[in-house]
Amino acid sequence: MARSSDYGAFMEKFELKPTSSSPEFPLNGLTFAVKDIFDVDGLVTGFGNPDWARTHSAATSTAPAVLAILRGGATCVGKTVMDEMAYSINGENKHYGTPTNPCAPDRVPGGSSSGSAVAVGAKLVDFSLGTDTGGSVRVPASYCSILGFRPSHGAVSTAGVIPMAQSFDTVGWFARDPVILSQVGRILLQLPDVDLARPSQIIIAEDCFQLSSIPNNRVSQVLVKSVEKLFGGDVVKHLILGNYVEEKVPSLSHFMSREIQKQDYNIASLAALSSAMRLLQSIGMNSRITMVNGLLL
């Protein structure tokens, strides 16, 4: 059941001290939590399902992503609730309870990295780790009104992370403070502490902004002005992303059903791309899970 004292965010609490507490380390003095999909030495990785937890042994090592954060000076304070076997973006779990969305208690927190997002949104930790296969960091970050980042596939090691669909699985992270989000990213992505190069172009997908119920000028124009201030107006390129994808990936026409094409509120080529990704994701998951005597092993 979800626990009110911690917004139902945690599966279990413990304390993993950083390998060094030197003030020189970028994450010194910060706390974080990890989704119950990451291995922590000596603990069972539950994967959001009690049968999975019951039929699997404790981990014999800690996931490299978690170790990297510990080496950066932060303290891990527990594992967080997640959607069952990571197969949802709602944030609900009938076995362990649904974490309470701290900014909208009557609404779901988003998932599958629900507890990690809630722990950050409720100010229980400074940042947290989650995973994102099809939105499992981006969705709860949006729902809980915090920052979330999904890096490119393969940019952060997924060793010691239970796979959901390996062709899409990524390690992501949450924070309230953009500075902390950046510091965590520099450690996980192993980025040098140098000034970023000026981008050659930044594309504004006009058709995607039009799908929002929020007036376009309240979102895209804020982004455009920020980009112009940082890099100059010559790098901004306005694009109809749906047309661009349709032109560059003609094979998507095989996924372009009549139902999709008739939806006025959708972008047909992006909806087709989503259908293709969901198909590949389901293939990846089905190859990972074996049914034995009715139990998921």
Automatic annotation (TrEMBL):
<protein>
    <recommendedName>
        <fullName>Amidase domain-containing protein</fullName>
    </recommendedName>
</protein>
<dbReference type="InterPro" id="IPR023631">
    <property type="entry name" value="Amidase_dom"/>
</dbReference>
<comment type="similarity">
    <text>Belongs to the amidase family.</text>
</comment>
<dbReference type="InterPro" id="IPR020556">
    <property type="entry name" value="Amidase_CS"/>
</dbReference>
<dbReference type="InterPro" id="IPR036928">
    <property type="entry name" value="AS_sf"/>
</dbReference>
<feature type="domain" description="Amidase">
    <location>
        <begin position="21"/>
        <end position="177"/>
    </location>
</feature>
<dbReference type="Pfam" id="PF01425">
    <property type="entry name" value="Amidase"/>
</dbReference>
<dbReference type="GO" id="GO:0016811">
    <property type="term" value="F:hydrolase activity, acting on carbon-nitrogen (but not peptide) bonds, in linear amides"/>
</dbReference>
